[in-house]
Amino acid sequence: MKTDREIYTLLGADAETLAILTDGIRVRGPYHFEALEVKGLDRRTDGVLLPEAPGEPMWVIEFQAQADPGIYHRLVVELGLVGERHLGRVERGLIMFATPALDPRTEPWYGASQQPDPPLRVVYLKPILADLERREPGHPLLAVFLPYRVADRERLRREGPQALERIATAALPQPVRERLTDVFFSWLTVRFSHMSYREILTMFGIQTPFEQTRAYKELVAIGHGKGLEEGREEGREKGREEGRQEGRQEEAAALLLRQARHRFGPLPPELEVRLDALPLARLEALSEAIFDLDSQSDLRDWLGRP
């Protein structure tokens, strides 16, 4: 399961989430992640953490979910090339392995990472989450990681709605809650790739309240010229169906817009308009295809297909 973008989305959610997942990286003040085209490597570095305070160190972060014997050497090269772009700033490197078994422990870099205040650090996600579960079993971050950690679909069907509720009711700023929700649904969509986006939303009980839809507001007009009760009943039935359809489309479009922004960065207005205008069937198709797209250019090409 592809995880890099979701991990970087979580690391960028807020300072507390960053500190938990990196086992202690603390940033004072606002920060953001930058994706850099690294000259000389012919690749993009997605995890360059840049604090806005100039005195704070910047971090080049690599998340590793597969075995790669060259990961230490690659990060060292990235540190040099990224540092060249930000001369004068203190720079650190972090490799986050999904599990300890993926760490090749390449010397001299691994040994140096075990020293106090090293320029290159190593952490392991699985033990970090296990420790968090022991300390705070109700932490919303554990709910976010449920689809990542659990492959059993039946268990996800049972526990997923409660996990989503934990995220929705956690004492978090709204932007942080949105990021956590987006990552949760991103991983959930992969686990239930055999289902349509609408089916997944329905399974989790997500719908727009009928009273908030345009269809509900038009019920009075539908009743004109008929007996009052007949008009009300017909209006209610039509409004229910239109409201359900409109609600599903609004929910799917809003969630997909947020996923696209987190995956590809800020979108130009014309792309946002095109996404927002997609019919429900196309929104569902894109919700499954988006994980195979790597750039805004790929997204634009997909939208141009019939």
Automatic annotation (TrEMBL):
<dbReference type="Pfam" id="PF14261">
    <property type="entry name" value="DUF4351"/>
</dbReference>
<dbReference type="Pfam" id="PF11103">
    <property type="entry name" value="DUF2887"/>
</dbReference>
<dbReference type="InterPro" id="IPR022573">
    <property type="entry name" value="DUF2887"/>
</dbReference>
<feature type="domain" description="DUF4351">
    <location>
        <begin position="245"/>
        <end position="303"/>
    </location>
</feature>
<dbReference type="InterPro" id="IPR025587">
    <property type="entry name" value="DUF4351"/>
</dbReference>
<protein>
    <recommendedName>
        <fullName>DUF4351 domain-containing protein</fullName>
    </recommendedName>
</protein>
<feature type="region of interest" description="Disordered">
    <location>
        <begin position="227"/>
        <end position="251"/>
    </location>
</feature>
